[in-house]
Design a protein that fits this description.
This is UDP-N-acetylglucosamine--N-acetylmuramyl-(pentapeptide) pyrophosphoryl-undecaprenol N-acetylglucosamine transferase. Its EC number is 2.4.1.227. The chain is α/β, with parallel strands linked by helices. The protein has two domains: 169 residues, Rossmann fold (3-Layer(aba) Sandwich); 169 residues, Rossmann fold. It has 15 helices and 13 strands. α11 links the parallel β11 and β12. The mean pLDDT is 93.
Length: 354
């Protein structure tokens, strides 16, 4: 039997890459051949090859907050990327092309449509990105994590890796847990400067109450470590990137983080109370992602413009492990744990028509 082939397009941020990687790994288990399209010097270039997946690099940049110069020359990059992906499609002949959103998906989405290859889209956020909005007009099938985001889209949830789904539920995690409150700090796959600046001060003021596991991102690891060391806070674990995020979720009583779609989905699946500091996008997509958890009392949302040391300290002082256990159970009630199966069913169904 000839194996099916798929090209997955995702890059720029963990929010696009990791859901795509979860889909890729599941498809490989099912006997599919997978190629990837991304950009050099982004997270996908460091992550995807380690899983034995062939990645093709295109030169393309996002247009959000870009300079006037880049905006003027962007059509040249888009055309080059389009022809590069078209050549890959002609050479490899995939059965399906899957776009996970973000600027990487744009040229490839148009190329797959032009080559009459079924184009599938997946939107992770509660507000669709520009690329997915445009491509949804020409795509074969649209998928979305939440209702009402893309036109004529099937609700499938956000795919997360099995290690996260297998994290023990809040009842088992919190049972007999004692000691300092365990706070996981994650500013997204690339870290967050504002969290790296504020959280060491918070740790100093609450060193008798909490312990941090802090993901800083690659660029600010040493600077953030120095802040903690200067305050003689040696009990905290400071790292640039947490590869085994499931173990971190299992360890934590609470998470302080951005509210990217994948992070919110993972927190719901695991069941973990959260303090969200949404990245201040103009469309407030991260704020929207977190609203359901705040509404049921599983999370608190702080706009970045209001964030300061005193506010975080006051919130943490108002919490104890019993309250965090209640927040965790509420979060757990919203978890969508069958997204990968839903997505595979859609992909498999479309592939049988080719």
């Amino acid at each position: 039997m000839i194996p099916k082939k798929i090209i997955i397009m995702a890059g720029g941020s963990g929010g696009h890459v990791f859901p795509g990687l979860t889909i890729a790994r599941y498809l490989i288990e099912k006997g599919w051949l997978v190629n990837w399209i991304g950009t050099k010097n982004s997270i996908e270039s460091r992550i995807i090859p380690t899983y034995g997946i062939k990645i093709h690099y295109i030169s393309i940049k996002g247009l959000r907050n870009t300079s006037l110069k880049n905006l003027i020359i962007s059509p040249i990059y888009i055309l080059r990327a389009y022809y590069a992906v078209k050549k890959i499609i002609k050479t490899w002949s995939p059965d399906i092309v899957l776009g996970m959103g973000g600027y990487v998906s744009g040229p490839g989405g148009v190329a797959s449509w032009n080559c009459n290859i079924p184009l599938l889209l997946h939107e992770q956020n509660k507000i669709a990105g520009i690329t997915n909005k445009w491509l949804s007009r020409i795509s074969t099938k649209n998928m979305q994590a939440s209702p009402g985001v893309l036109r004529n889209a099937e609700v499938v949830g956000n795919p997360v890796c099995q290690s996260i789904i297998k994290v023990p539920n809040p009842i088992n995690r919190f049972k007999n847990r004692t000691g300092l409150l365990r706070v996981l700090v994650i500013g997204g796959s690339q870290g967050s400067s504002i969290l790296n600046r504020i959280l060491p001060k918070v740790s100093f003021l609450l060193k008798e109450k909490i312990i941090f596991w802090h993901q800083t991102g690659n660029y600010e690891l040493e600077k953030t470590k120095k802040k903690y060391n200067k305050l003689r806070l040696n009990q905290n674990l400071i790292t640039s990137f947490i590869k085994n995020i499931a173990s971190a979720y299992e360890w934590a009583d609470l998470i302080i983080c951005r509210s990217g779609a994948l992070t919110v989905s993972e927190i719901s699946i695991v069941g973990l109370g959260a303090i969200f500091i949404p990245y201040p996008h103009k469309d407030k997509q991260q704020h929207r992602n977190a609203e359901d958890l705040e509404l049921i009392g599983a999370a608190k949302i702080i706009d970045q413009s209001n964030l300061n040391t005193k506010l975080i300290v006051n919130i943490l002082n108002s919490l104890d492990r019993d309250k965090l256990f209640i927040m965790a159970k509420k979060a757990h009630s919203l978890g969508v744990r069958d997204a990968i199966f839903n997505i595979f069913n859609v992909i498999n169904k479309i592939s049988k028509k080719t």
